[in-house]
Structures are given as C-alpha cells and as structure tokens.
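Onboarding guide, step 5: your first structure request.
Type a short instruction followed by the sequence, for example:

Predict the 3D structure of this protein.
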Amino acid sequence: MTAKPKLPKYIHLKTHSAYSLLEGALPTGKIAKLAEAAGMPAIGLTDTNNLFGALEFSDKLSGAGIQPIVGATYDTDFGDGAAADASALPRLGQNAPPVRPAGALALLASNADGYANLIKLGSQAFLLPDPTEPTHIKLDALETHRKGLIVLTGGPEGPIGRALSDGQPDLARERLTRLHRVFNGNLYVELQRHGLRSEEEIEPQLVALAYDLGIPLVATNEVYFATPDDYEAHDALLCIADGRMVTEDNRRRVTREHYFKSMDDMATLFADLPEALESTIEIAQRCAYRPMKRKPILPRFVAAADAAGMTDEEMLAAEAAELKRQAEEGLCARLAVNPLADGFTREDYDKRLAYELDIIARMKFPGYFLIVADFIKWSKSNGVPVGPGRGSGAGSLVAWSLTITDLDPLRFGLLFERFLNPERISMPDFDIDFCQERRDRTIRYV
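The system replies with structure tokens like these:
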C-alpha cells in the first residue's frame, strides 16, 4: 500500500505582497521562495483592496510548484450605522477621512466563479464609493457576488473584531450572524496572535461566538515582511505611507510578529487550538483555481450578423479585406491633400501599402489595426485631441492611411519593420497620446 502524503501543519492564507501598496513589503517572487523554504504546498494572497498582484503571484507560485490561493482583503461597509468612531485614527493615512468602513474581510477564490466575483468587487471598491470615502465594498454587493468565495472574518481589524474591541458584543453577533447566513459553510472566524493586546482581549469572545453559531475557527498570521529583521524597514514604509515620523507614538504600527512564520512556529503558537490550524489546510484543499496568463483576446471587428457561422480563417479573411479597403481609401484621401514624398511615386506608395497589408494579414493583426483606427477616428471626430504618433508605429503607412498616425513614413524615411515584422511574436504596440482633460471620453467609448 502506498502511504498517504503527510499533510502540512499550517498554511499561510493572509500574505500581503508589495501590491498592498505602501503596506506590504514582499515581492511575489520572494513569497514563492519563502513558501518553498518553509515546505508549504500552498500560500494565500490577500492584498489590501486590490488584485493587482494576482496574476503575477499565480504565475510565480505555480512555477515554483506551490499552489497559489488568490484572494484580497476588502474593507467592508455593513451599512449598520456603526462604521466608525469619528475620533479614530484613519486607517489609510493622516489625510484620509476619519470615517472608515466596519472592518476588513479576507476573501479567497475557491473556483473560477469566485475569482470573477473578486474582480467585480474590486472594481466596485474603487468606482462606487464617494471620492471623499476610503476604498471599500458594501456588504450587499458581497452578498450578491458571494458565489465561489471563502470568507475569513479579518481578525481584530475585521468587522467582528472591531465591534468587540468597541465594547459592542451584540453588534458583533449581529454582523457574524449575517455573514453566517449568507456564507454558511464558506465562513471562518479568524484568530490572530501577533502579541497585541487587542487580539488577546477579543479572542475568547470570538471563540465563544464561533462555537455558539457553529462556525469553524481558522488561525492566520498577517504577513507583511519576510523576517523579524525586516521590522524597522517596514515600520519606515508605514510612516512614508501615512506621512508620519518614526519617532511619533500615535500612529499606525504592526509588530515584529507580522513576518512569514514557519509551520512549526504557527503550530506552537496555536497548539491549544489545533482545529484552527487544520482549517488552513482544509481551506487550501477547497481552493482549486488560479488565474492563467493568456494571449490577448481581441473583439472581432466584423459585424455580428456577418460573423455568424464563420470559421476563424473566414473571420480573419473578412477583417483583412476590410483593412485593405479602409487603408486603400485612406491612402487616396491622404495623398489628395498631401504631396508625394520627394523621390517617391504613387506606385511606391501602393507597393509599400500592399507589403504592409500582407505582413499584417499573415501575422493575424488586421483586427488590431481596425480597432485602434476606430477609436482614434472616433476621438478626432468627437473633440478629443490625439497626438500625431510617436514610437515605431509611426513607421507604418497603413497607420497613416487609417489616420492612426499623422506622419507620412516615406517622407521621413521611417521603417515599418521596426514596428512589425514576421519575426516579432508579441502584439504590435501603438503609442497614442490623448488630451488628458478629455481622454476619459475615449476610454468610455472603448
């Protein structure tokens, strides 16, 4: 009989990378090395209010043979009127408004639906709050986009922990009951032991609430840096984030214990609550999704009615034909108002155009040129100033014909091959400048 693989003692679920801006101090590659050295088969990423590092984290961890668990920590407004003490220190820095959300929940994607919901919630966190409010999500939105998510209650900075710290046990129970009702089976009461008095004071109440409501416990360590020796540097980072001085006392701090602890360290720390350690392995086993890198996906430029029933080859041929039509008509329009470049004939222009169109078609980029030309033409006809073109893209006669650029490459001796050639495997890249006061109109159109 083959022996069963030995399970790890503990798995970090709340690691913050450098994408927890001015808060985390760990590059994703460093997290992979730390996990590998610690023998952890999986690691969870829960950057603060964003998914900026999710794809890079997924790529680096899986490349090291470690299971990436993608998540995020989102400040959450419960809408219960108890979001903040107006005298409290703002969490996001000296200049942030004093009102803060109820607390931070850690959300982990267990499958593709969960990751899609993380993305939706991340967009809402930035787009929906008033500009005077800190980045956060609404609990109603979390309930709407709950599928595929595992929720950790956030420790002392979570909505349950903050209510208990504020002496509001009834509010804490109410919040936890609401989460339990929505995320039953996908909710864990989070315990943290970084040596803070706030953690010690509320832990018995958290455990009691969890047992009373039948919610499992999970042990976490909020990881911001690699080793205790990094504490001073990280403390300076927090000062930079908040515009404070290291010598000030009344400011945001973490502890030396917010480092990447080993499995043995965590097993010793929570030896009295082995169930909380086992939950970290259980959660890791439940999370079976990671975002994957993929080639760019461009929308088809041909009309939906025309595209019905087309194969990919037929679609590409249709786009190539449309690009050829627009480029030839555009070149005629350009030369009607611009003289030929010195030393060149109209035949030279036609040959150059045909050569470029052939390269573009063979490399399967007709749709890309048509899309870029479309939003540039829209911008120019809707009062959004657009630059004349810069970079290697200015060497394309097709681009000039489509009004993507306003430079005749033959007149200035610019080479198309610097922009696109059969040996280039990446997508072409037009550098386009839009008026900073009106570019939002173009973005909305795109």
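Each response can be followed by summary notes, for example: The mean pLDDT is 91.
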